[in-house]
What we know:
Layout: E1 4-7, H1 17-26, E2 32-37, H2 49-58, E3 63-68, H3 76-81, E4 84-90, H4 97-106, E5 110-115, E6 133-137, H5 152-166, E7 171-175, H6 180-189, E8 193-196, H7 198-201, H8 206-214
The structure holds D-xylitol-5-phosphate (DX5) and zinc ion.
Amino acid sequence: MNTIVSPSLLSADFGHLADDLKMINESNADWLHIDVMDGVFVPNISFGFPVLKHVAKLCEKPLDVHLMIVDPDRYIREVKDVNGHIMNVHYEACRHVHRTIQQIRDAGMLPAVTINPGTPVCMLRDIIKDVYMVLLMSVNPGFGGQKFIEHTTDKVAELRRLIAETGSEAIIEVDGGVNETTGEKLVKAGADALVAGNYVFSAPDPKAAIDKLKQLDR
Ligand code: DX5
Ligand code: ZN
């Protein structure tokens, strides 16, 4: 199985976004990962929908939108309007996560739920059959280039078991500190998709870095 690779725009060169998006379009990346931060849910602010509108115009890959904002259901329309393919919302940031998942689906997007390193996998039991994907954070969200939290591989295996046990079809994505080494452990533990920011954009050959992650196999 080829791993799904979702390079994170957060590590791109914001002074030359068009060049980096061209590289992504020409690469074997499956999706483009978009990190939206509000400075409240996470201690950082990235970019918002006025910027995303232009990114969406230039990007030919489906957008994997990761909202690190409180009450993300307020922005379902905006994500849809920038042609969001997957809308990732944090379990910890939703008051009614089940309702939010339904609303994302009703809007015509694929719903994904994200959990922080401190949130246990068992919290997903009652929504696991309703989501297209679970995004496991392998760093505390807010910044690129952080160190991978090793315990995440155990969480991937635990989530695999929960998915099998419940008959869910959810796929597993992991975000934070992903490189060839951590990526290999994650894929072996059962991850389907890898987000990579720093590893891809600081590589001498970003397209080759994407290919290295894509070639990881169980
Ligand atoms: C962190 C973001 C990540 C980030 C990953 O809050 O959700 O998507 O861009 O960056 P790396 O791969 O550099 O850890
Ligand atoms: Zn992210």
